[in-house]
Amino acid sequence: MPLSEGTSQETVSKNISEFHxxxxxxxxxxxxxxxxxxxxxxxxxMSKKRESGHKRRMGRTVHVEDEGHITKKDx
Length: 75
Known about the structure:
Strand order of the largest sheet: 1-2
Number of strands: 2
Order of helices and strands: HHHEE
Mean pLDDT: 78
Number of domains: 1
Largest sheet: 2 strands, antiparallel
Shape: elongated
Number of helices: 3
Distance between the termini: 34 Å
């Protein structure tokens, strides 16, 4: 069951849904509980999203000097 490539919310949701029907999810749920299995499914889907090229916001502001004017730029 390969995960879909993409960064959209729909793709991530579809990837999470794929984990809920697999043997890995069932084994993790049995051993560690439903919360741990759900968290693992979300983590794998988000990892695939990052691999697909999604850029995360770092939450910092950098001051950039552009032609004598100082402006703020969010990255």
